């Protein structure tokens, strides 16, 4: 009994002093620059749940506005202790530096890359107005009747918009961009025959494709998309064009090396958990879970990739 009392006393002392392993878990606040329910929010909450073995508590905080720039500014100014991070799509880190005249942040200098979480690709979609079955047929029709070569997107300055510009540059065939306020209005216009084509994230159109209402005629990644495995890549169809986007985690600049190593290893391990991988695949994403260096390299490559098509449009925003 005396030994048991001593053991309980030692445990109580350890709890009070924080000596138990559970007490060693640091907190983690994940900022999301978009409203609840969107893709960035969903991925942040899935990753956050998978990180609860390493951090406690894990809090996902939505700070929507300005295309994610409000949340990015908050992370930029946060203490670099590994306890405040952001999960976001690649646009604010690889497109905005080319589009905006003034940004509240420097996409390279102000942040520490932590891990590339998942990649996704885009589809070239044919609607009832065009009714074409391949990219070659689309380009032939566009050459014969340029006025009919209209494509919709989720808005000017978005990745789908620049996908169309990139295809023009890769093929020499002019296309006419018609911007909409989001993917849903673009789908409505495509279904109604108001535009002949659409560039969009594959998951936004896969259901309509499988229902036979539209046809995805090509995908922009390095391999076929598991949501539409019957659809060839643009490279398979002879188009020298390849482009994907990603979701990633960043921390403030100046993160201590040991803190970064702990964080990137925990995040990569979380993304590689089978349950999380299964959820991401079902949502239409390719799970990655990379090192900090691999994310930095991916960001650098995409910054260079998008510079030419963006400058070709002449689009600049304040």
UniProtKB/TrEMBL annotation:
Record's signal peptide: 1-22
Keyword terms of this UniProt record: Signal
Gene3D superfamilies in the record: Bordetella uptake gene, domain 1, Periplasmic binding protein-like II
Cited Pfam families: TctC (PF03401)
InterPro entries xref list: BUG, Bug_dom1
PANTHER family: BLR1237 PROTEIN, TRICARBOXYLATE-BINDING PROTEIN
Family, as annotated: Belongs to the UPF0065 (bug) family.
Protein name: Tripartite tricarboxylate transporter substrate binding protein
């Amino acid at each position: 009994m005396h030994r048991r009392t001593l053991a309980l006393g030692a445990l109580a002392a350890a709890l009070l002093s924080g000596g138990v392993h559970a007490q060693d878990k640091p907190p983690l606040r994940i900022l999301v620059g978009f409203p609840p329910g969107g893709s960035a929010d969903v991925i942040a909450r899935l990753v956050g749940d998978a990180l609860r073995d390493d951090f406690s508590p894990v809090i996902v905080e939505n700070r929507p506005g300005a295309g994610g720039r409000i949340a990015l500014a908050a992370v930029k100014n946060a203490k670099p202790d590994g306890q405040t991070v952001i999960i976001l799509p690649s646009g604010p880190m690889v497109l905005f530096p080319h589009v905006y005249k003034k940004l509240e942040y420097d996409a390279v200098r102000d942040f520490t890359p932590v891990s590339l979480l998942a990649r996704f690709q885009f589809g070239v979609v044919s609607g009832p107005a065009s009714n074409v079955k391949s990219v070659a047929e689309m380009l032939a029709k566009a050459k014969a009747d340029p006025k009919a070569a209209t494509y919709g997107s989720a808005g000017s300055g978005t990745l789908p918009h620049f996908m169309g510009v990139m295809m023009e540059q890769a093929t020499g065939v002019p296309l006419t961009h018609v911007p909409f306020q989001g993917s849903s209005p673009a789908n409505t216009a495509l279904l109604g025959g108001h535009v002949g084509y659409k560039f969009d994230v594959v998951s936004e159109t896969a259901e309509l494709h499988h229902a036979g209402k539209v046809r995805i005629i090509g995908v922009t990644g390095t391999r076929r998309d598991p949501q539409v495995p019957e659809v060839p890549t643009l490279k398979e169809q002879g188009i020298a064009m390849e482009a994907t986007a990603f979701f990633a985690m960043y921390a403030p600049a100046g993160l201590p090396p040991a803190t970064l190593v702990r964080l990137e290893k925990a995040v990569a391990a979380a993304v590689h958990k089978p349950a999380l991988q299964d959820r991401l695949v079902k949502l239409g994403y390719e799970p990655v879970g990379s090192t900090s260096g691999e994310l930095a390299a991916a960001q650098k490559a995409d910054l260079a990739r998008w510079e030419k098509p963006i400058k070709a449009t002449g689009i600049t925003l304040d």
